[in-house]
Write a structure and sequence with these properties.
Elements: H1 2-25, E1 31-34, E2 38-42, H2 45-54, H3 68-87, E3 96-101, H4 104-113, E4 123-126, E5 131-135, H5 141-156, H6 163-176
Parallel strand pairs: 2-3, 3-5
Antiparallel strand pairs: 1-2, 4-5
Helix pairs in contact: 1-4, 2-3, 3-5, 5-6
Length: about 180
């Protein structure tokens, strides 16, 4: 009887997450900001503004919405350039995507679409889609640099190195992003 309750509870949770994922698909990022290295996808101007604040592109008190995209693009290019320098990897070729969602719940729903059974991290890179997934609620310049490191490493090598090796390099980048 106890096992049956667990199965039913599991089915209810899985169903709720599936329905949440389906509902969130309609709320997927709609706008695009192209930069030198990546395409940033986001839902609306407020999401872009919040993302920009989180990664240090714009001040919390900034009200100049007209320049938000320009400032975010410049900060993204700076972060990608720093990541490439820290890794001493300068891949030519395919760009990658950064998909920004407002909440962690949306990241978790996307993570499940990749058949990941574990709890979703606050951000992740999916090599098959060449996409970084982040939530505005959890992103920082360090978190973003960490995921960009995964993208750069995966693009640089014909066969990406093992996940643990990538993780060591990505953590190094995260810790030393602003070192000169």
């Amino acid at each position: 009887m106890h096992r049956a309750r667990k199965i039913i509870a599991g089915a209810i949770v899985a169903g709720a997450l599936f329905l949440t994922g389906a509902a969130l698909a309609s709320d997927a990022p709609q706008k695009t900001l192209e930069t030198r290295y990546a395409d940033l996808y986001y839902r609306d101007d407020e999401t872009l503004r919040s993302f920009g604040r989180q990664i240090g592109a714009i001040s919390f008190f900034s009200r100049d919405g007209a320049r938000t995209a320009e400032l975010v693009a410049a900060q993204l290019e700076d972060i990608v350039s720093r990541v490439r320098r820290r890794l001493d990897m300068y891949p030519e070729g395919p760009r990658f995507n950064i998909r920004v969602y407002p909440t962690y719940l949306e990241i978790q729903a996307v993570y499940m679409t990749y058949d990941m059974n574990a709890r979703a991290p606050i951000a992740f890179y999916a090599h098959a889609a060449r996409s970084i997934y982040v939530s505005v609620a959890d992103v920082t310049d360090g978190v973003l640099a960490h995921e960009i490191a995964h993208a750069v490493i995966s693009i640089y090598f014909v066969t990406p190195p093992p996940a643990r090796m990538q993780e060591i390099l990505a953590q190094y980048v995260d810790r030393h992003l602003w070192d000169e």
